[in-house]
Design goal:
Layout (H helix, E strand, L loop, with lengths): L2 E4 L6 E4 L7 H11 L28 E4 L2 E3 L10 E7 L22 E6 L13 H19 L6 E8 L11 E7 L4 H6 L6 H10 L4 E5 L2 E4 L10 E5 L12 H19 L4 E6 L9 E6 L6 H6 L2 E3 L3 H9 L5
Parallel strand pairs: 2-14
Antiparallel strand pairs: 1-2, 3-4, 3-5, 5-6, 6-8, 7-8, 7-12, 9-10, 10-11, 11-13, 12-13
Helix pairs in contact: 2-5
The protein binds zinc ion (ZN) (2 copies).
Length: 326
């Protein structure tokens, strides 16, 4: 039986329409059968522009992280022994080029950066070591703070697309950052009111059957309002608004890694996005949403803005609780 659910406090709806008897491992299999899985072009390390040794095939790094520290400007020469490498996207959605100070919207002002998370071609966050994942989250924080300090930048979108169904065109594990000259309107809607709505949501979900993990001040849960199968939110119990308030980088990093590896244990190789929801309004409450990509939005969603989710979040949480490291 289906159920229409309303968002915790926004005027948004989703339909939970469970497909009976479907196992988590069926999702990835079904996606492959439908023909839209595995279509990312698999290239060897020699051809992969993100691989160690191919630095000259991308724009010079804006921040290159090594075991000795960070090189902020690679123009003076390529850094070879990098661990995480950030550089401008060759095909940016926004760019500062040709912008006047008065017209930031009309000229498409902004920045678009690629964060290559590892020099190794076949590693990705679900299998990262403690050091690797902590380093990556440290880089997220560093680049977020850097761009929020750039004149004209109002908002930084930070996200990862992994796998072809999640919109990644290059296999080598990377994240992206887009710095915008405006705060997207949904963030204003989410801080509308005196109290933090997310503090309430976290309290509510912490006592629910949708809680997956509570560790080191981080709540991991499948939200009551879930638009996608196995959608999961990670949020700090303590209120802070963005990555600049993240003091314990490692605790969050390990929670993120362990969630991804538990999904991998359920689904096998799978496509996913994770997205940082944050802004520099102190009323906002940082949270990260993780979306495995099994379904594609189509005509109905486009028409109504209402998403159909074939897995009840209560069932998703039970499956993930069974495999996640406590
Ligand atoms: Zn590569
Ligand atoms: Zn809060």
């Amino acid at each position: 039986m289906s159920e229409v659910r309303k968002h915790y406090f926004l005027d948004e709806y989703c339909i939970i329409a469970p497909e009976r008897g479907l196992r988590p491992s069926d999702f990835e299999k079904r996606r492959g059968e439908r023909g839209d899985g595995g279509s990312a072009i698999r290239v060897g390390e020699e051809e992969c522009v993100f691989c160690l040794g191919n630095e000259a095939k991308t724009p010079p790094g804006t921040a290159v992280y090594t075991s000795d520290g960070v090189v902020r400007d690679e123009i003076s020469g390529v850094v070879r022994d990098w661990l995480v490498r950030c550089f401008p996207n060759r095909y940016p959605v926004l760019s500062p080029d040709g912008c006047s100070i008065d017209d930031h919207l009309g000229c498409g002002f902004g920045f678009h950066e690629v964060i290559v998370e590892t020099p190794l071609h076949d590693r990705e966050p679900s299998s990262f070591s403690d050091d690797e994942i902590t380093r990556l989250v440290g880089v997220y924080k560093d680049r977020y703070e850097f761009y929020m300090g750039v004149a004209g930048v109002e908002f930084v979108s930070l996200f990862k697309n992994h796998g072809s169904s999640a919109g990644a065109s290059i296999l080598h594990s990377h994240s992206q950052l887009v710095a915008l000259p405006l705060v997207p309107p949904r963030f204003s809607l989410e801080v509308d009111g005196e109290e933090c709505r997310f503090c309430d949501i976290i309290t509510f979900e912490s006592g629910s059957e949708r809680l997956i993990l509570m560790r080191d001040g981080w709540a991991v849960f499948a939200p009551y309002f879930s638009r996608y199968p196995f959608e999961v939110w990670i949020a700090p119990v303590k209120h802070f608004s963005d990555l600049s308030g993240l003091d314990d980088v490692s605790s969050f990093a390990l929670v993120l890694r362990d969630l991804l590896s538990s999904m991998r244990a359920l689904f096998g190789e799978f496509s996913y996005n994770y997205v940082f929801f944050q802004c520099n309004s102190k009323e906002y409450h940082l949270h990260v949403k993780v979306f495995p990509r099994f379904s594609v939005s189509a005509g109905f969603e486009e028409n109504t803005g209402i998403y159909i989710n074939s897995v009840a979040p209560e069932d998703a949480a039970a499956e993930l609780r069974g495999v996640i490291r406590p």
